[in-house]
Amino acid sequence: MTARKRITGILAVGVTAVLLLSGCSGNGPESADQAGSSSAATPKKGGTVYMLQNADFSYLDPARGWDGGVNAFYRLLYRGLTMQNAGDAKDPNAIVPDLAESLGTPSDDGLTWTYKLKDDLKFDDGTPITSAEVKFGISRAWDPQIGIGSPYLKAVIDAPGDYQGPYVSGDIPTIETPDAKTIVFHLKQPFPEFDNVLAQPNAVPFPKGSGGGDSFIKDVIASGPYTLASYTPGSVIKLERNKYWDSKTDDVRKAYPDAWQVNLGIDPATIDERMISGQGDDADAIAGKISAATLPRLQTPQLKARVISAPAFCTTYLGMNTTKPPFDKVETRQAVNWALDRSAVQNASGGTQLADVATTIIPPAVSGHADFDLWKSKDGKGDPEKAKELLAKAGLPDGFTFTMDIRSQPAMQAQAEAVQESLKRAGITVKLNVIDTSVYYETIGTPAQQHDAAITGWCPDWASSASTFIPPLFDGRKVTEKGNNNLSQLNDPAVNARIDEIMTMTDTDAAKKAWGDLDKQILELSPIAPLVWEKGLFLPGTNIAGYHPSTNMTDLTIVGLKDPSKG
């Protein structure tokens, strides 16, 4: 998502307000007293479900896109060998087979993983999906232009050092296809969570030779239950059923609606207003998180019954570019952390109903979280005097000025202004550089274009492990010219080495503790300043059923209508 991941969610983050940069998976249960009838009701087949969004999706091509909103959308169009479980499952974070007959079989040394495909798998034009198409689609992740999405395939699979994807380098030798149903992956080192890697949005099949350059900018080749009917960038996306998708081969996607329509470019306040009114097609609609300004209006019994809450899986943070002065000095970065009034950022994010103050990288809902606060202050308001002491040690007794990138969203700008005001108390002046949401992650993920700092966020690509939180954001060997997730560009040898050690741990409990300890080790270097963990309140349309929203990734494939005849 973001660095990019990215906040995933249906939108949970993505849409009306905040698509964070970074990875992205995981559903949280609704609170018992707020679970609305839209989650309890069983959808019926038919009709059209609408999605109301402020911004367009980043990319229709899953090799390029990778944030919460678009990851949820991809589940309607694409299938992989594995996938995250259904949003209403007992364990929605579990990884289950998708195109594959079962989860992978690792070799004794953990360096190869083997999968067998199900029978009767087809693309939306009726052509068969074999191991060759799976291999080709996955190899697109290495293309220097296209492969700017999820980094895990490139990080784990043992491709040649000079490999640049199928269009530049041809066949990838470390993914084998001994027959049409078998695919074998060779890894750089043992990675017990490899099933999770293949559940990433870019690990999907494409016909051999397809999808080079910008050919998938406005088109798709679908393997999931829906395919693209029409797309007007910035305005509307329409999906229709993929007649070659066979529900007998798919245990997760229910695909209740006959069609989906995503209406784009709507002002966030207008989205909230339409969801409250629920007139016409909006009764069949879902949207992103309710904005803070709308909360006081949700006190009627009718609206309270519709509201669904979701816990925070994502961390909103201020990333500081450690390669640029004065953020190349740890004292400067620590000063920012001490000066921040995180309670003010919490208020700007909607108050206690919508956000908790964040003091760590890994949020409490994600496995590996450790509870600590290196910058403990009264009521979370920061300590400007402590910050001034550190600035003096850094040779900045009179403070300094820096430019911070932010998204062109009211909620994000409110957070930025809260940061701006709190740092001013320590003599730090913040200039805001506002970037359009649709290109925000691409911009700050390009080191040549990013400024001194940026506010963004990160969600886990699988919530069962912090391996999708720490490595993407802080492994200094993974800084790239495009699609960069290590926004701070931290490259600390001790951090890099510890990441390598933890990634190969097979003792789950030991790995959890190790990630929490590394979280603290990294924050002592202060490459980022955690701000808030954003929770979510959602207000679906009155005719929506099967809706289990998440601040990480909402499962659209189980959403439908209570009564399609009303659509």
Would you tell me which CATH topology of the domain at 315-534 applies? Dipeptide-binding Protein, domain 3
- Separation, N- and C-terminal Cα atoms: 33 Å
The CATH architecture category of the domain at 315-534 equals Roll
Helical coverage, percent range: 10-25%
Q: Unreliable stretches, pLDDT < 50, 5 or more residues? A: 1-36
Q: Percent of residues in beta strands?
A: 15-25%
Structural class: alpha+beta
DSSP helix count?
15
What oligomeric state do the depicted chains represent?
Answer: single chain
- The coarse silhouette is globular
Count the E strands: 21
On the 0-100 scale, what is the average pLDDT?
91
State Rg. Answer: 22 Å
The major pleated sheet works out as:
6 strands, mixed
Strand order of the largest sheet: 14-18-13-17-15-16
What are its keywords?
single chain, 567 residues, alpha+beta, Dipeptide-binding Protein, domain 3, six-stranded mixed beta sheet, 15 helices, disordered N terminus
Concise account of the structure shown:
With 567 residues, the protein is an alpha+beta fold. Helices cover 23% and strands 17% of the residues. It has a domain at 315-534: Roll (Dipeptide-binding Protein, domain 3), CATH 3.10.105.
What does this protein structure show overall?
With 567 residues, the protein is α+β, with helices and mostly antiparallel strands. It has a domain of 220 residues: Roll (Dipeptide-binding Protein, domain 3), CATH 3.10.105.10. It contains 15 helices and 21 strands. It has a six-stranded mixed β-sheet. It has a five-stranded mixed β-sheet with strand order 8-9-10-1-11, with no helix packed on it. It has a four-stranded antiparallel β-sheet with strand order 4-5-7-6, with helices on one face. Helix 8 runs antiparallel to helix 10, helix 9 runs antiparallel to helix 11 and helix 14 runs antiparallel to helix 15. The protein starts with 36 loop residues before the first helix and ends in a 6-residue tail after the last strand. The N terminus is likely disordered.
